[in-house]
Design brief:
The chain has 198 residues and is an alpha/beta fold. The chain starts with a strand and ends with a helix. It is built from 9 helices and 5 strands, in the order E-H-E-H-H-E-H-H-E-H-H-H-E-H. Helix 3 packs antiparallel against helix 4, helix 4 runs antiparallel to helix 5 and helix 4 crosses helix 8. The structure holds thymidine-5'-diphosphate. The site of thymidine-5'-diphosphate (TYD) has 11 residues, from helix 4.
Protein backbone atom coordinates (compact mmCIF):
# COMPACT_ATOMS: atom_id res chain seq x y z
CA UNK A 1 0.00 0.00 0.00
CA UNK A 2 1.05 3.58 -0.65
CA UNK A 3 2.31 5.68 2.22
CA UNK A 4 1.10 9.15 3.14
CA UNK A 5 2.36 12.14 5.07
CA UNK A 6 -0.29 13.76 7.29
CA UNK A 7 0.41 16.81 9.46
CA UNK A 8 -1.55 18.08 12.46
CA UNK A 9 -1.27 21.70 13.51
CA UNK A 10 -2.91 23.85 16.16
CA UNK A 11 -2.31 26.08 19.17
CA UNK A 12 -1.27 24.54 22.50
CA UNK A 13 -4.19 22.59 23.95
CA UNK A 14 -6.01 22.20 20.62
CA UNK A 15 -6.06 18.42 21.11
CA UNK A 16 -3.55 17.45 18.40
CA UNK A 17 -1.81 14.77 20.41
CA UNK A 18 -5.06 13.08 21.41
CA UNK A 19 -6.41 13.12 17.86
CA UNK A 20 -3.09 11.76 16.54
CA UNK A 21 -3.24 8.88 19.02
CA UNK A 22 -6.83 8.02 18.10
CA UNK A 23 -6.11 8.15 14.36
CA UNK A 24 -3.02 5.96 14.81
CA UNK A 25 -5.02 3.39 16.68
CA UNK A 26 -7.93 3.43 14.17
CA UNK A 27 -5.64 3.02 11.14
CA UNK A 28 -3.48 0.47 12.94
CA UNK A 29 -6.50 -1.68 13.67
CA UNK A 30 -7.30 -1.64 9.93
CA UNK A 31 -3.89 -3.20 9.36
CA UNK A 32 -2.18 -0.04 8.06
CA UNK A 33 1.43 0.62 8.97
CA UNK A 34 1.36 3.88 10.96
CA UNK A 35 4.24 5.96 12.29
CA UNK A 36 3.46 8.72 14.79
CA UNK A 37 6.05 11.42 15.07
CA UNK A 38 6.31 15.01 16.28
CA UNK A 39 8.30 18.23 16.10
CA UNK A 40 10.39 19.29 17.83
CA UNK A 41 11.66 15.71 17.50
CA UNK A 42 13.02 13.79 20.45
CA UNK A 43 16.42 13.21 18.83
CA UNK A 44 19.44 15.39 18.12
CA UNK A 45 18.53 19.04 17.64
CA UNK A 46 14.90 18.43 18.62
CA UNK A 47 15.97 16.93 21.94
CA UNK A 48 18.31 19.88 22.43
CA UNK A 49 15.44 22.34 21.87
CA UNK A 50 13.19 20.41 24.25
CA UNK A 51 15.89 20.16 26.94
CA UNK A 52 15.85 23.93 27.46
CA UNK A 53 19.65 23.95 27.07
CA UNK A 54 19.30 26.48 24.29
CA UNK A 55 18.46 29.22 26.83
CA UNK A 56 19.59 32.75 26.07
CA UNK A 57 19.50 32.39 22.30
CA UNK A 58 17.79 34.87 20.02
CA UNK A 59 14.38 34.21 18.49
CA UNK A 60 15.95 34.00 15.04
CA UNK A 61 18.42 31.35 16.24
CA UNK A 62 15.57 29.40 17.80
CA UNK A 63 13.72 29.50 14.46
CA UNK A 64 16.81 28.16 12.70
CA UNK A 65 17.04 25.31 15.21
CA UNK A 66 13.43 24.30 14.55
CA UNK A 67 14.17 24.25 10.82
CA UNK A 68 17.43 22.32 11.28
CA UNK A 69 15.55 19.71 13.30
CA UNK A 70 12.91 19.58 10.53
CA UNK A 71 15.50 19.02 7.82
CA UNK A 72 16.73 15.75 9.32
CA UNK A 73 13.21 14.76 10.34
CA UNK A 74 11.92 15.28 6.79
CA UNK A 75 14.47 12.80 5.46
CA UNK A 76 13.26 10.16 7.89
CA UNK A 77 9.61 10.95 7.10
CA UNK A 78 10.21 10.51 3.36
CA UNK A 79 11.89 7.15 4.01
CA UNK A 80 8.92 5.96 6.09
CA UNK A 81 6.44 7.10 3.43
CA UNK A 82 8.39 5.32 0.70
CA UNK A 83 8.22 2.15 2.80
CA UNK A 84 4.41 2.43 2.69
CA UNK A 85 3.77 3.95 6.14
CA UNK A 86 1.13 6.51 6.97
CA UNK A 87 3.14 9.11 8.86
CA UNK A 88 1.19 11.21 11.39
CA UNK A 89 3.25 14.25 12.26
CA UNK A 90 2.33 16.47 15.23
CA UNK A 91 3.51 19.92 13.99
CA UNK A 92 5.53 20.79 10.89
CA UNK A 93 6.66 23.95 9.08
CA UNK A 94 3.46 25.90 9.83
CA UNK A 95 4.37 25.75 13.54
CA UNK A 96 7.56 27.69 12.87
CA UNK A 97 5.79 30.28 10.73
CA UNK A 98 2.84 30.65 13.14
CA UNK A 99 4.81 30.66 16.42
CA UNK A 100 8.12 32.24 15.46
CA UNK A 101 6.52 35.07 13.50
CA UNK A 102 4.37 35.79 16.58
CA UNK A 103 7.55 35.81 18.70
CA UNK A 104 9.69 37.81 16.32
CA UNK A 105 6.80 40.27 16.22
CA UNK A 106 8.47 42.27 13.50
CA UNK A 107 7.28 43.48 10.15
CA UNK A 108 6.15 41.19 7.34
CA UNK A 109 9.75 40.40 6.42
CA UNK A 110 10.06 38.03 9.39
CA UNK A 111 7.23 35.93 8.02
CA UNK A 112 8.75 35.93 4.54
CA UNK A 113 12.11 34.90 6.00
CA UNK A 114 10.49 32.07 8.00
CA UNK A 115 8.67 30.81 4.91
CA UNK A 116 11.82 30.95 2.84
CA UNK A 117 14.09 29.10 5.31
CA UNK A 118 11.45 26.40 5.58
CA UNK A 119 10.87 25.99 1.86
CA UNK A 120 14.34 24.58 1.23
CA UNK A 121 14.02 21.89 3.92
CA UNK A 122 10.43 20.67 3.85
CA UNK A 123 8.34 18.29 1.79
CA UNK A 124 4.74 18.88 0.86
CA UNK A 125 2.42 16.88 3.16
CA UNK A 126 -0.45 14.95 1.54
CA UNK A 127 -2.74 16.72 4.00
CA UNK A 128 -2.35 19.28 6.77
CA UNK A 129 -5.14 19.40 9.33
CA UNK A 130 -5.44 22.56 11.40
CA UNK A 131 -7.29 21.93 14.65
CA UNK A 132 -8.69 25.40 15.13
CA UNK A 133 -9.81 26.61 18.54
CA UNK A 134 -10.06 29.88 20.45
CA UNK A 135 -6.94 29.85 22.71
CA UNK A 136 -8.96 30.86 25.78
CA UNK A 137 -10.90 27.59 25.34
CA UNK A 138 -7.80 25.51 24.65
CA UNK A 139 -5.92 26.92 27.67
CA UNK A 140 -8.92 26.24 29.89
CA UNK A 141 -9.01 22.74 28.50
CA UNK A 142 -5.39 22.06 29.48
CA UNK A 143 -6.01 23.47 32.93
CA UNK A 144 -4.38 26.92 32.74
CA UNK A 145 -6.36 29.21 35.06
CA UNK A 146 -7.32 32.80 34.23
CA UNK A 147 -4.74 34.46 36.46
CA UNK A 148 -1.92 32.30 35.04
CA UNK A 149 -2.93 33.24 31.51
CA UNK A 150 -2.51 36.95 32.17
CA UNK A 151 0.72 36.34 34.09
CA UNK A 152 2.38 34.77 31.07
CA UNK A 153 0.60 36.95 28.50
CA UNK A 154 0.06 33.67 26.79
CA UNK A 155 -3.41 34.38 25.54
CA UNK A 156 -2.42 37.35 23.38
CA UNK A 157 0.46 35.35 22.00
CA UNK A 158 -1.67 32.31 21.14
CA UNK A 159 -4.33 34.51 19.56
CA UNK A 160 -1.64 35.81 17.23
CA UNK A 161 -0.49 32.24 16.57
CA UNK A 162 -4.07 31.22 15.73
CA UNK A 163 -4.43 34.16 13.34
CA UNK A 164 -1.13 33.20 11.67
CA UNK A 165 -2.31 29.60 11.30
CA UNK A 166 -5.60 30.62 9.68
CA UNK A 167 -3.73 32.74 7.16
CA UNK A 168 -1.42 29.83 6.33
CA UNK A 169 -4.43 27.52 6.02
CA UNK A 170 -5.84 29.73 3.27
CA UNK A 171 -2.55 30.10 1.47
CA UNK A 172 -1.50 26.45 1.64
CA UNK A 173 -4.87 24.70 1.51
CA UNK A 174 -4.87 23.20 5.01
CA UNK A 175 -8.12 21.62 6.13
CA UNK A 176 -9.48 23.56 9.09
CA UNK A 177 -11.36 21.45 11.64
CA UNK A 178 -13.28 23.08 14.48
CA UNK A 179 -11.49 21.65 17.51
CA UNK A 180 -14.01 23.07 19.97
CA UNK A 181 -16.55 20.47 18.83
CA UNK A 182 -17.01 17.26 20.82
CA UNK A 183 -14.11 14.80 20.50
CA UNK A 184 -16.04 12.23 18.41
CA UNK A 185 -17.07 14.86 15.87
CA UNK A 186 -13.49 16.15 15.62
CA UNK A 187 -12.19 12.61 15.17
CA UNK A 188 -14.78 11.78 12.45
CA UNK A 189 -13.91 14.94 10.50
CA UNK A 190 -10.19 14.26 10.76
CA UNK A 191 -10.64 10.66 9.60
CA UNK A 192 -12.68 11.77 6.60
CA UNK A 193 -9.88 14.13 5.53
CA UNK A 194 -7.31 11.37 5.91
CA UNK A 195 -9.38 8.82 3.99
CA UNK A 196 -9.31 11.10 0.97
CA UNK A 197 -5.53 10.88 0.74
CA UNK A 198 -4.76 7.29 1.75
P1 LIG B 1 4.13 20.78 21.52
O1 LIG B 1 3.55 20.18 20.30
O2 LIG B 1 3.20 21.48 22.46
O3 LIG B 1 4.95 19.66 22.25
P2 LIG B 1 4.59 18.81 23.53
O4 LIG B 1 3.09 18.69 23.56
O5 LIG B 1 5.28 17.51 23.25
O6 LIG B 1 5.18 19.59 24.66
O7 LIG B 1 5.29 21.76 21.08
C1 LIG B 1 6.07 22.42 22.03
C2 LIG B 1 6.12 23.91 21.77
O8 LIG B 1 7.03 24.18 20.71
C3 LIG B 1 4.78 24.54 21.38
O9 LIG B 1 4.47 25.60 22.27
C4 LIG B 1 5.04 25.09 20.00
C5 LIG B 1 6.52 25.24 19.93
N1 LIG B 1 7.07 25.15 18.54
C6 LIG B 1 7.50 26.33 17.93
O10 LIG B 1 7.44 27.43 18.53
N2 LIG B 1 8.01 26.25 16.66
C7 LIG B 1 8.11 25.09 15.98
O11 LIG B 1 8.57 25.07 14.82
C8 LIG B 1 7.65 23.88 16.62
C9 LIG B 1 7.75 22.57 15.91
C10 LIG B 1 7.13 23.96 17.90
Amino acid sequence: MEGAFIVFEGVDGSGKSTVCRKVASALGSEGRKVISTAEPTHEGIGAFIRSGSAGGISQATEALLFVADRNDHTERIMDWVSEGAIVLCDRYFASTVAYQSAKLDGDGTDRDWLLSINSRFTSRPDATILLDIDPSDSLRRVGVRGEEVSKFEKLDFLEQVRFNYLRLAEEYGFTVVDASADPDTVFDKVMSVIRKVI
